């Protein structure tokens, strides 16, 4: 179970900001927050592995919010195959029992590839995308993989900014990546470097 703070007044220290979206078991104790911080809304976000029944909703969200203006490649059948694939994690975020977002990640021997990530428009800017990435990142670390990479539409500046805030670096452009119609920016995050730094 993850928590997200949808609004807060007052400064966050670096530590409390890190816990802005994270597992409930690791939440920063409220009594230690700055005294002028006032929580407006706290929403519980459950992240779980996707089930076959989730395939249609995931595919429809991809069509409408990720692949808009492109061909529909992530069909329900393709998503269902990913759910059944042992080398892919498909996860779903539910906020107050309602579908709020999802992510798909493929694992290889020494790297992980984020295939899709989306949050429903009504649930954006509530830390759900960050919570999905935190869940996947922990899985990557647990399996000993050192790098996560992804592609994002070159014109999607908000997504590029989101991933940069999570520590991803833009490492190059791929022309015509999306159906030959639009270029992609390839991004990567090196987790071994982060882990080594945190142990110093």
Give an overview in words:
The protein has 200 residues and is α+β, with helices and mostly antiparallel strands. The protein is 29% helix and 38% strand. It contains six helices and nine strands. The chain has helices at 14-18, 55-66, 76-84, 128-142, 157-165, 191-198; strands at residues 2-9, 21-23, 38-49, 88-95, 98-107, 112-119, 147-153, 169-178, 182-190. The protein has a nine-stranded mixed beta sheet, sandwiched between helices. Strand 6 (112-119), helix 4 and strand 7 (147-153) form a beta-alpha-beta unit. Helix 2 (55-66) crosses helix 3. It is globular and about 35 Å long.
Count of β-strands: 9
Order of helices and strands: EHEEHHEEEHEHEEH
- How would a textbook summarize the main sheet? 9 strands, mixed
* Separation, N- and C-terminal Cα atoms: 30 Å
Shape descriptor reads globular
Radius of gyration: 17 Å
The stretches of 5 or more residues where confidence is low (pLDDT under 50) are 2-42
* Helix-residue proportion: 25-40%
Strand content: 35-45%
* SS content category: alpha+beta
Q: Determine the mean pLDDT.
A: 80
- The helix count comes to 6
Main-sheet strand order equals 2-1-3-4-5-6-7-9-8
Keywords:
200 residues; alpha+beta; 9 strands; disordered N terminus
Spell out the blueprint of helices and strands:
Layout: E1 2-9, H1 14-18, E2 21-23, E3 38-49, H2 55-66, H3 76-84, E4 88-95, E5 98-107, E6 112-119, H4 128-142, E7 147-153, H5 157-165, E8 169-178, E9 182-190, H6 191-198
């Amino acid at each position: 179970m993850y928590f997200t703070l949808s609004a807060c007044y007052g400064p966050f220290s670096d530590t409390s900001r890190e816990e802005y979206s994270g597992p409930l078991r690791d939440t920063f104790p409220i009594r230690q927050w700055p005294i002028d911080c006032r929580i407006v809304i706290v929403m519980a976000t459950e992240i779980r592995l996707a089930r076959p029944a989730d395939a249609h909703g995931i595919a429809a969200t991809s069509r409408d919010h990720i692949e808009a203006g492109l061909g529909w490649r992530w069909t329900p059948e393709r998503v269902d195959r990913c759910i059944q694939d042992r080398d892919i994690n498909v996860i779903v975020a539910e906020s107050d029992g309602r579908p709020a977002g999802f992510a798909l990640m493929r694992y290889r021997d020494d790297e992980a590839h984020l295939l899709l990530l989306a949050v429903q428009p009504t649930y954006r800017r509530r830390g759900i995308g960050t919570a999905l990435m935190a869940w996947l990142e922990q899985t990557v670390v647990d399996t000993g993989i050192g790098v996560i990479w992804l592609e994002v539409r070159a014109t999607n500046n908000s997504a590029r900014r989101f991933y940069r805030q999570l520590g991803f670096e833009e490492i190059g452009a791929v022309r015509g990546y999306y159906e030959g119609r639009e270029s992609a920016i390839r991004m990567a995050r090196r987790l071994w470097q982060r882990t080594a730094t945190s142990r110093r």
